[in-house]
Design a protein that fits this description.
The protein is α/β, with parallel strands linked by helices. It has 3 domains: 2-53; 55-136 and 247-299, 3-Layer(aba) Sandwich (D-Maltodextrin-Binding Protein, domain 2), CATH 3.40.190; 138-246, D-Maltodextrin-Binding Protein, domain 2. Helices cover 42% and strands 21% of the residues. The protein has 12 helices and 12 strands. The protein has helices at 26-55, 65-69, 72-84, 95-103, 115-123, 156-165, 178-189, 206-216, 224-230, 265-275, 278-286, 289-292, and strands at 2-5, 8-11, 58-64, 87-93, 109-112, 127-141, 170-172, 199-201, 219-223, 238-240, 247-255, 298-299. Strands 3, 4, 5, 6, 7, 8, 9, 10, 11 and 12 form a 10-stranded mixed β-sheet that branches. A two-stranded antiparallel ribbon has the order 1-2.
Length: 308
Amino acid sequence: MLQLTHGRCKEGAGVRLPAWLYCKGYIKAAITVLVAVIVACGCQKQSDKSSQKTNGRALRLATSTTTVESGLLDRLIPVFEKKYGINVEMLVGGSGEALQKARDGFADVVLVHSREEEDKFVSEGYGINRKDVMYNDFIILGPPDDPIHLKDEKDALSAFKAISDKKALFISRGKNAGTHVREKSLWKLIDIKPSGQWYVPESKDQLSMLKTASERKAYCLADRSTYLFNKEKLNLPIVVEGDKKLFNPYGVIAVSPARIPGANLEAAMKFIDFITSVDGQEMICYYGKMKYNKALFVPLSLNNYTCQ
């Protein structure tokens, strides 16, 4: 082994080192160089980790509850993660909540269904590269006995007016979710501001609203996909459907790094490219067909693509 004696070098038993290391302070120099190399490697690894955190594998997706409670993202996200090697972290809430999360810097991309709010998000500079993704429609649901006889009604506004006039129990989605925004727009069109014991906000999520309406034998407005996916748990038939005012489009928007420093634009753009691609649109088209005999969502991104 190597020993130090009165500041001089001498060779002992053990591993034999090159002769030039045994004298003239080369041991100290070699150790210094080795330490510097180790420190440099450690810094490089830390730098790599920092780069990965900023631009790398995790994509923060803020989305409406309807994309999750309909089961759609359970179909799409694993395919995206496998294809691009990017892990997705989902922040789930109403469309208004999802957009606010992005404004607050907690998301890289949003997938929501509140077009006016989406356009405002983009005009404020928070969002870039908005793309149409898909659509479904809203439906009005009610108790099996339909106490105010809406079943043959084709006009959503007439149905809402009847609910208000007769003070039939109505469960609202609340919290400025995409469904709530549409509901408020319908009330506004007939110049009614709903209030009173008959009007009950359900602020948790759309599935909670549906369950509450089912349990309390109330009316409500919901998106068709979430309803169909959870229909077996509910005693809540459709009473009004097919009105063009119930059209419900979804959009995807990247968060702008210029407005939100650190937003992962690279991963966001890959997600947008994926969900609006032929492969992504076909998955949307076929989702639910086997079980419900119809797609739960209709692709909207590709002009020449027809969902059969």
